[in-house]
Amino acid sequence: MAEAFNDLVLSADREARYAELATEIAAVLEGEPNLVARMATVASMLAASFDHFFWTGFYVVDPARPGELVVGPYQGTLGCLRIAFGRGVCGAAAATGETQLVADVHAFPGHIACDGRSRSEVVVPVFDPAGDLIAVLDVDSDRPAAFDAVDALWLARITGDIFSR
Ligand code: SME
Q: Helix, strand, or coil here: 58?
């Protein structure tokens, strides 16, 4: 009972922080059209805001190699350079266009272990204003089951506001 109440308080705190962050990121990026600058700023501001974010960044759709993601701006330890659509959690988000919420990466078929400390993750597809996939936002944690629907919803909302309008 006490644990459920604590979880509720913590998720309310997280929601409030995400809401502030959405406003702060939009203010910093006001008038800046460059995609690399926008992705780098989003990755930096997200990573600095939450203790449970171990690796935070973008894998972008590579126009030079159809069906592949290539690493973009990120904060964290060394990431893999390329991920094929359909491979691992990022590849699943790219292939389906749907957010992937993975409580235990070791149980996810084909998970790519760029850093063995990664235990759980959330990956959100990122679309341009025309609705085409341009990237995925990958957030990994070194804690198991670190993310829930609050993270999935707010990360989709923030990337939607910044990249899809
Ligand atoms: N976790 C990802 C791979 C990228 S990194 O961990 C930075 C995946 O399985 O899609």
A: strand
- 144 three-class SS: coil
**For residues 111-122, average pLDDT:** 92
Give the domain extent around 54.
Answer: 2-163
Helix ranges restricted to H, the chain: 2-29, 35-47, 88-96, 149-163
pLDDT tens for 80-104 read 999 999 999 999 999 999 999 999 9
Distance 23 CA to ligand 1 centre (A): 28
Number of folded domains that form the chain: 1
- Write the CATH number for 7: 3.30.450.40
Q: Is the Cβ atom of 55 under 6 angstroms away from ligand 1?
A: yes
Rounded to the nearest whole angstrom, what is the distance from the C-alpha of residue 88 to the centroid of ligand 1? 7
Determine the 3-state secondary structure of 121 from DSSP: strand
